[in-house]
Batch of 2 targets.
Target 1
Amino acid sequence: MSFKNIPGQSKTKRILKDTIKKDRISHAYLFTGNKGLGKSEMAREFAQAIFCNKNIADGCGECISCKKFEHDNHPDFHVIDVKEDHSSILIDQIRELQKEISYKPYEADYKIYIIDNAVRMTEQAQNSLLKTLEEPPEYAIIILTNENKNELISTIVSRCQEVKLYNQPEEIIKNYLRDNKSFNKEKAALYANLARGKYKKAVNLALKEDFIDKRDELIKFIVNIDKKDNFEIFELSEKLKNISDSGFPLFELLLSLFRDILILKQDENDKIINFDYKELIAEAVNKFNIDDIFELTNLINQYKGYYYGNIKKELLFPSLFFKIRSKKKK
C-alpha cells in the first residue's frame, strides 16, 4: 500500500508526508470530507507510512512492518468500528481501547487507532474518548474519520488536527479507474462522471453487478413517466425499495437526471452527467418547466431525508413518483 493508491488529494498527501518527515506527528487527527472520498483509506495509508521501517514518509510495501500491516496483523494497529448487530460504536469499545492503549507498543514507536465513522459513537462513547484525547500516552495516535466535524462534540474536535479530503477532478478519477481498475475508456468516463469527484464511489458503483441495468430502467422510466399508470409506478417503487436497501444510489441518480434535463434546456450539452443517455434525456426536456425542475430537485432531497429518517419506504417511493409525474407539462 502507498499514498499512490488513492487518486488525487495531492495537498492532503503533502501535508501528511511533511508531518512524518519533520517528525511533527500529533496524537489525534480527524479526517473529514464527503462520503466516497476515501477517508478511511487515507487514514490507513498514513498509519502504514508512520510504521514503515524505510522512513520514506510512505508505505514501501516491502519491509516487515508494511507486510504485517497489509496482512492486517500489525500488533500496534487497531480499527474501531460498529460491531455486527449493533448500530453504534459503544462505550465498552472505547473502554477497551483505553485499557489496551495503556500498554506500550509491541514493535513500533507508536500505537495507532482508527475510529471509522466517528459520528456512530454514542454520546457516552464520545465523552469517554475525550478523556484519552486530553491525556494520551506519548506513543498513541488516534485517528477519527467522519464526513463533517460538526457532527461530533466540539471538545473532541478541538483536540484533533483536522485533515481535509476534497472532491477530485473527473479526469483524475477517470485515469485512476482506467490505469488501476482495468476499466476501458468509456466505462471509466461513465463512472468518473457519475461519482462527481469521489473515487471510492466510482469504484463501488462499478462493483454493483446490477447497477447498469437498474440505472437504465430508472432513467427510461422517469423520461417516460407521463406515460406510466399507477400500477407501473407501484411496481417500480417496490423494486427500488428492495435495491435501495443494498446501496443503490437512487436519489443521486434522480438528482443527476433532472440536472441533465436542466443542462440540456440551457444548451450546455458538454456538461451532462449521464452522457450515454443524452438522446433519451433530450426527450424529457420539453416535459418539465425550469421552475418545476428546481422544485423537484428540492423534493428529491427532501425525500432523501425522509428515507434516511426511516419513513415507510413502501409509501415513500410511490409518493415521490406521483409528484414527479404531476409536474410534467400538460
Target 2
Amino acid sequence: MKRFTPLFITVLLLLTLAAFASDKNYDRLKKQIPLTHEKNLVVNVSYGNGFIQVDKTSSKNVFETEVVYRNSRPEIDYEVVGDEGRLRVSFEGKMSKSFRDNESINVRSFKKLYDNEFYLYLTPQLPMDLTLELGVVKGELNLGGLKISSLYLEIGVSQANINFDQPNPVSMRHCSIEGGVGKLQVRNLGNANIKDFIFQGGVGSYVLDFAGEYQQNTHAKIELGMGKLRLYLPEYIGTRIKLSKSFLSSCSINKVYKDGDNYYNDNWQKTPIQLDMEINAGIGKVDVIWVNKE
C-alpha cells in the first residue's frame, strides 16, 4: 500500500484550499419572472465582457436568467407598465485571459473561462423589441422561434454565433447588427421575417446566411469596413444585389446577370417574395455563395 508523505499531504491540502478560495471569488445570481397580463416585451441588455447565451424558455415565465460573476454584480430590473413588460440588464466586468474555442463552459463546476457568464432565456409567447449592447464577448444567441418585432445588436469585440433556426412568427420591422472586431456568424436570416436589415462590419471575419423560410420582401443594406464577408444567398427567391466597392476590395459573384452595378439571379421578379440587397465594401473581400432549400 502506497504511503503519502506529510509534505505531499500538506501540498495537496493547500492546493485544495486555494481552489476552494478561487471558487468563492465567484457569485451567482438567478432570477425568473412568471407571465401575467403582459401583451408585449421590451428587453434592453448592456453586457460588458464575458460569455453570453440567449435562447427561449420552455416555461411560463417572461424570462429566466442565471449570471455567474466575479467582481461586478449585475443589475436586473423588470417592471410592467400597462400591458408592456420591461426588462433591463446592466452588467459590466472583465474577461479572463483564456479565450479559446476548445474549452468547455460549465456553470455548475465553476471551471471558468470567463470572469462573467450570462444566460438569458426569453419567452416565445410575447412579441418583443430586443436591444443587445455587448462589449468583448464570446457567445451563442439562438433567436429562432422568438417573436422579435425589432432587433438592435451591437458587439464591440466578438467571437459569436447568432442563429434563427426557427421562423419568427411576427414581422420584424427592423434589424440592425453592428460588429466591431472579431468573428461573427449570423445564420438563417430568412427565418427572421425581416422587413429592413442593416449590417455594419468593422474589422473582422463575418458570415451572413440569408437562407430560410421567407414570409415577406426583405431589403438589406450591408457595409463592410475592412475584413472578409461571406454571404449565403437564396437561389430559390428573386434576389438583386447592388454593389459599391473601392479598388481595394474584391467581390466574387457567380450565377447572376450583371447590369452596371446591379446583379440579378434567375428568379428576380419571378417569385412572390424578393430579397433586395445593397453592399458597400471598403477594404476587404466579399464572397457570394448561392444556396437552395434543403
